[in-house]
Amino acid sequence: MHTNENIHIVASTRYLPEHPASSDDQYAFAYHIAIKNKSGTTIQLMSRYWLITDADGKKIEVQGDGVIGEQPTIKHGEQFEYTSGAIINTPVGAMEGYYDMQHEDGSALRVPILPFSLAVPNTIN
Fold this sequence. Notes:
9 strands; five-stranded antiparallel beta sheet; four-stranded antiparallel beta sheet; Immunoglobulin-like
């Protein structure tokens, strides 16, 4: 979990062996994000940036407006959750990034997302 201006972000991941992309050379993962607003003001998630790195050091950057087609508004004390996915070329990798958010008064806020692992179960002992 990472806290910035009382915005708490928790990430969890799951390998998707049944996903059509999962094969000998690709690995599909779902990641679930929970964003809790403890800032005392309403915030809106405007855009996201992800840096996805596989075990070979290959990096993929993903950026754009909102998440899962939304730019959610999160009131003080509320939580927004969503699930999305990533595909990498190795059984182990990592994701990190940030959300650009905006307070209700229009001031900008960048909330870093600390690195979290993407790993096929039993790959790392």
